[in-house]
Amino acid sequence: MDTPTPRIRPELLLLVSIASVQLGSSFAKQLFELAPPWIVVWLRILSSGVVLSVVAPPRLSGRTRLEWRRVLVYALSLTLMNVSFVMAISRIPIGVAVTFEFIGPLAVAVAGSRKAREYLWAGLAAVGVALLGFAPGALDVTGVLLALLAGAFWAAYIVAAGPAAEHWSGVTAVTISSWVGAVLLLPVVLATLSSGTTQWAMQPRVWLWGLALGLLGSVIPYALELRALRTMDRGVFGIMMSLEPGAAALLAWLVLGEDLRPVEVAAMVCVVAASMGALRGSRAAPDASLKP
Question: What are the TM regions of this chain, as residue ranges (predicted)?
């Protein structure tokens, strides 16, 4: 008699996915010592495209203009979200950046609900943002704006994900998006090289770190999230993904030694609580959380 294969609980898969994404962010910031932020984000996107092309190659032939237009909008949103976020964490702590960024999916969740109490959650999130904005020892303004911009593109990505998924199965839309992003950022990479910043390109460890970033930030989390969603309640999925700011802060502290002040922790708690409350009753919850 065959012994049944033990099934891994979807909650555990999701926690590993969250840890993978945020660990990738900490490693990306660590890589800034060897390569400029623009190069780091390009390496992450490029390596994601290479790996996903092997494990999830998309069907390219026979596609309509509508299908290409939808995946390109999705790709542009995803690329700009990644670029904005990486540039943000080059200026402000990762936990704070993720807290600001999470305003994007929270806004989508609130907008997708017609219940009056959802606006109370939005107010709680606004309190958190206000705590960050007016706390002593002001944060880098450019970094904050970049994090908020990343949140806006995350919201755009959420909206674009549904139409793209109608025509591109599994993670094939992410495969296409990764290559689109890599091509869009190539002129910046070439400009960096022409300016004399070439040391990073000669170091094999930079390329290996880039591969690790693609695996941690895109390939592993997406595979785990898709598997978790097969058996997991989508509302619970959205609520658990609200843990991302806390996970980001914890891993940044462990890997980089980034400390958060009490007021920043309080702000994060406000945003996480607001996200959990809003996503709990929102149909947008799972889509708001899936982010490679």
Answer: 38-56, 68-88, 94-112, 119-139, 145-164, 171-194, 206-224, 236-256
Whole-angstrom distance, CA of residue 73 vs CA of residue 63: 15
> Structure pTM?
0.85
Domain ranges of the chain: 10-289
pLDDT tens digits, 146-193:
999 999 998 898 888 888 888 888 788 889 999 999 999 999 999 888
Nearest to 108 by CA among 246, 286, 270, 292: 286
